[in-house]
Specification:
This protein is mainly alpha-helical. It is built from six helices and no strands. It is globular, with a radius of gyration of 15 Å.
Length: 142
């Protein structure tokens, strides 16, 4: 059984963070746009927040459907892929972004503009993930 209220809050947070990324003034088109430290840190934090909430969303679906007990964040997306809740392309991309989430979280002192820009370029996969979860909720379950 899905905790629709909790899932709704997570999705709402993700959507708000994406709106924050699109704020006027944060016109990020290339890696050089992150040389301004204020933009660098702002974007880093928003990306980190999106990735954390995507993990939370995946974990909710895994737990609600008794798909297993993931021991890593990557495993959440592997379980969702293996059980056909998400496609292989979404699962692999989200699993790959977990590396950057951990970098943003644990090794922020080594974080470069290139790292942040790489996540920024790839973050839209989370929108596809959210879209798929909304489909699942509309269907009731798989």
């Amino acid at each position: 059984m899905y905790d629709v209220e909790r899932i709704g809050k997570i999705i709402s947070d993700i959507e708000r963070y994406f709106r924050d990324l699109e704020l006027e003034g944060l016109n990020i088109k290339n890696v050089e746009d992150l040389e301004d430290r204020k933009d660098f840190y702002a974007i880093s934090m928003v990306l980190f927040s999106i990735l954390n909430r995507a993990i939370d969303l995946g974990d909710e679906i895994v737990m609600a459907n008794n798909l297993g007990m993931p021991s890593t964040y990557k495993e959440i997306f592997r379980l969702l892929t293996r059980n056909e809740y998400i496609g292989k392309d979404i699962g692999e991309e989200l699993s790959n972004l977990v590396f950057y989430r951990n970098l943003l979280s644990h090794e922020y002192y080594d974080l470069t503009e290139e790292d942040v820009f790489e996540v920024f370029k790839r973050i839209d996969i989370v929108k596809k993930f959210v879209g798929r979860i909304k489909e699942i909720l509309r269907e009731g379950s798989l």
